[in-house]
């Protein structure tokens, strides 16, 4: 379709857009300079021009097409035109920040967006939230910069970042690289352990390749088979039990952060205050809902998508059976006693200690600390990490929170460019 679009020129493109989006409806539509389907309706693209949505674009026709394309992909009936406008502007700014040489080439930006949206169609994905498209396009635009980023695990780690990957997480290397940079892993003592099943070896290899050559040996790769779980695929319930099992944390340091897949964006380092708590995660909306019968049982817990876990706490109060010692069946039987996902299960254990006055060395986190630490379904002003906020929270919130990662990625590009110029100048000096 892009080839057709370019071939028709500025005026003929309107016909291509109209036919692609609103077949059979041209006669019934009101007069309009440009037409495109938006949120299940056909609106005029000249309205996008007049709204100043993409102010300052050198190519307003391509900008308007981008505006319409972003809206046309997810059939999000709740999205407002203002939200679509915000996302279009943010993606244009992201493109300009990370692709300086082609910053004014809106057609190239359109091609980048089309690569993502065409992928939805090819895979049969049904995207129902405009925020998901924003996240996917942002990561696509940042892909090259993230892979080139000079971000390493620590050579002398005192803490562990554990990242679980499956064969579906083909782009997890991007999230891991951003996490290492945002956490300032090399200077703050964060090691990297990637846990995987047998089918995810290629994903682990991609994470290793994404690391700078001088620190690839610092990556610790741990297979589920080494824990006694010989499954080609691990179900969600089994993974949840594993993350509540002491065997999952064997050989780690005093402080562990667990994460996984492609659903986590890390934004800033973790403070010493946050690291002092036994468990931290994004708080749950349902936990504070009036209809929830016992809000106390989940008051000290948070979502396990990105969470601090004290290995000593899990070793004492988590699942004790070890598949490689007592056998897989013994471990699976004990998993059956959880009745909750790992994050809720451990939160209930923490609350029991608090009620019984037997916390000992363990320190539960108050609600405001949970909110400050991470965001998922509840907004946080400056969280360490976002976990699927693009699915659950407003586009305005997600766009605002992505500004810090964009600045971090942009700064890394500047450093890389300065280093490249320095190497070039040094080479020229030696050749004189």
Automatic annotation (TrEMBL):
Keyword Signal recorded: yes
Origin superkingdom: Eukaryota
Protein's name in the database: DUF5672 domain-containing protein
Signal peptide positions on this chain: 1-28
Pfam families xref list: DUF5672
InterPro entries per the UniProt record, alphabetical: DUF5672
Keywords: Signal
Residue ranges of domain DUF5672 in the record: 270-380
